[in-house]
From TrEMBL:
Record domain Amidase: where: 1-443
Organism in which the protein naturally occurs: Streptomyces zagrosensis
Gene Ontology biological-process annotations: translation
Pfam families: Amidase (PF01425)
Protein name (database record): Glutamyl-tRNA(Gln) amidotransferase subunit A
High-level lineage: Bacteria, Bacillati, Actinomycetota, Actinomycetes, Kitasatosporales
Keyword Repeat included in the entry's annotation: no
NCBIfam families listed in its UniProt record: gatA
Subunit relationships: Heterotrimer of A, B and C subunits.
Positions of the catalytic residues: 52 (charge relay system), 127 (charge relay system), 151 (acyl-ester intermediate)
Function in brief: Allows the formation of correctly charged Gln-tRNA(Gln) through the transamidation of misacylated Glu-tRNA(Gln) in organisms which lack glutaminyl-tRNA synthetase. The reaction takes place in the presence of glutamine and ATP through an activated gamma-phospho-Glu-tRNA(Gln).
HAMAP family per record: GatA (MF_00120)
Signal peptide: none
Catalysed reactions, semicolon-separated: L-glutamyl-tRNA(Gln) + L-glutamine + ATP + H2O = L-glutaminyl-tRNA(Gln) + L-glutamate + ADP + phosphate + H(+)
């Protein structure tokens, strides 16, 4: 049914870069066979999922939204891919994304944009717009995203779906193509809080192949999602997120959520996190710096596009020509910014200062969580904007992640879930819930209560 749905609508939506029809049917048959033999089935047996094209899939193309990796067939599965298979999930295919996960609209994909199913002339968010659009257009029941600065939560917000950035280190990064390693975090996307929780437990947990993987039990998120309640919980409203620059309808729905939380038993506290105003600036130094280092591996020698290798050129020239041809504008912008920020003479002023700001932001969170159990804010300042509107204005594009970036810098857990439609444009608004690191279960407990 889902393959038929994809065939019927994805020409318009363009959520998928690759539909693995044969692979999906083979997995489905394998689940049926297991069932017929009376074997124990995985916890998500037979549930169709859309996988962001940033995770390696053995024998199935993985492009990361880039021309540089067009046609590359990974020889191995990411840990997350392996865990999905172990859970007996059916992987329908690989979803569209901003190239190397750099963007907030999926317009930076080398393979063309994805439409927002609510209005195909608008963006589905990014970088994981393909995954969120697949959910919102009922092409998949579950999806996977990655969140470096908001790429799970912001697409969820603008498509009316649920997206969770687990605690940093909660889901393995092995086989997830690196953008900014100290920020990158894979996580679950779904249409309901409980569905997201079921997927969360299937993919989370320690992996010795990822040096920053957390070696501790996974928080009981499914139980929390089944027992949604906020009685006696202290909920902090982040003062810095709201007001000027925020769409009126977004603030209206957010304020209604605050009232709802109060009505169902939460205590609402206003919390100030003064360093959050610097988060965007710090992120756009740290993320490009790490990207400039991570993307150095694309040298046209080991894998991917190779241009100009005609026997007359040096390896350096072939590398340069291939990177020139294979990377898009935003990726080049980040590599140049990052290389500059890390260069001797500028390192302390830029990268060093950004790391100090990162510490201040982490301290703001620590202080806040001394007096509240979770923090809330709108997920994004506006609803989905028209395709093309911010394409030539990187600064306007970067503002889409204003409210999501602090959690990446601090490494804590955060969720976006739908909280109604903005009256002025009828488009979905997202509510963001933030919990301390390793307290991912609180997101689900609160999310299920207000869903
Ligand atoms: N939009 C942000 C960026 O462009 C975040 C991307 C992400 O989370 N992968 O970097």
């Amino acid at each position: 049914a889902h393959l038929a749905r994809i065939a019927a609508v994805d020409e318009k939506v363009h959520a998928f870069l690759h539909v693995d029809r044969e692979g999906a049917l083979a997995q489905a048959r394998a689940v049926d066979d297991k069932r017929a033999r009376g074997e124990k089935l995985g916890p998500l047996a037979g549930v169709p999922l859309a996988l962001k094209d940033i995770f390696t899939t053995k024998g199935v193309p993985t492009t990361v939204g880039s021309k540089l990796l067009e046609g590359w067939i990974p020889p191995y599965d990411a840990t997350l891919t392996q865990r999905l298979k172990a859970a007996d999930v059916i992987i329908l295919g690989k979803t569209n994304m901003d190239e190397f996960a750099m963007g907030s609209s999926t317009e930076n994909s080398a393979y063309g944009p994805t439409g927002n199913p609510w209005d195909l002339t608008r963006i589905p968010g990014g970088s994981g717009g393909g995954s969120s659009a697949a959910l919102a257009s009922y092409q998949a029941v579950l999806a996977i995203g990655t969140d470096t600065g908001g790429s799970i939560r912001q697409p969820a917000a603008v498509t009316g779906t649920v997206g969770v950035k687990p605690t940093y280190g909660g889901v393995s990064r092995y086989g997830m193509v690196a953008f900014s390693s100290s920020l990158d975090q894979g996580g679950p996307c779904a249409r309901t809080v409980l569905d997201a929780a079921l997927l969360h437990e299937a993919i989370a947990g320690y992996d010795p192949l990822d040096s920053t993987s957390i070696d501790a039990p996974v928080p009981s998120v499914v139980e929390a999602a089944r027992n949604g309640n906020v009685a006696g919980l202290r909920v902090g409203v982040v003062k810095e997120f709201g007001g000027e620059g925020y769409q009126a309808g977004v603030m209206q729905r957010f304020n209604e959520s605050v009232e709802l939380l109060r009505e169902i038993g939460a205590e609402i506290v206003e919390i100030s996190c003064p360093s959050f105003d610097l988060a965007l600036a710090a992120y756009y130094l740290i993320a490009p710096s790490e990207c400039s280092s991570n993307l150095a591996r694309f040298d046209a020698m080991r894998y991917g596009l190779r241009v100009g290798d005609d026997g007359t050129r040096s390896a350096e020239d072939v590398t340069a020509l291939s990177r020139e041809a294979g990377f898009g504008d935003e990726v080049k912008r980040r590599i140049m910014l990052g290389t500059y920020a890390l260069s001797s003479g500028y390192y302390d002023a830029y990268y060093g200062s950004a790391q100090k700001v990162r510490t201040l932001i982490t301290r703001d969170f620590e202080k806040a969580f001394e007096s509240v159990d979770v923090l809330i804010s709108p997920t994004t300042p506006t609803t989905a904007f028209p395709i093309g509107e911010r394409a030539d204005d990187p600064m306007a594009m970067y503002l889409a992640d204003l409210c999501t970036i602090p959690s990446n810098l601090a490494g804590n857990a955060a969720m976006s879930l739908p909280c109604g439609l903005a009256p002025e444009d009828g488009l979905p608004v997202g509510l963001q819930i933030i919990a301390p690191a390793m307290a991912d279960d609180r997101l689900y407990r609160v999310g299920a209560a207000v869903e």
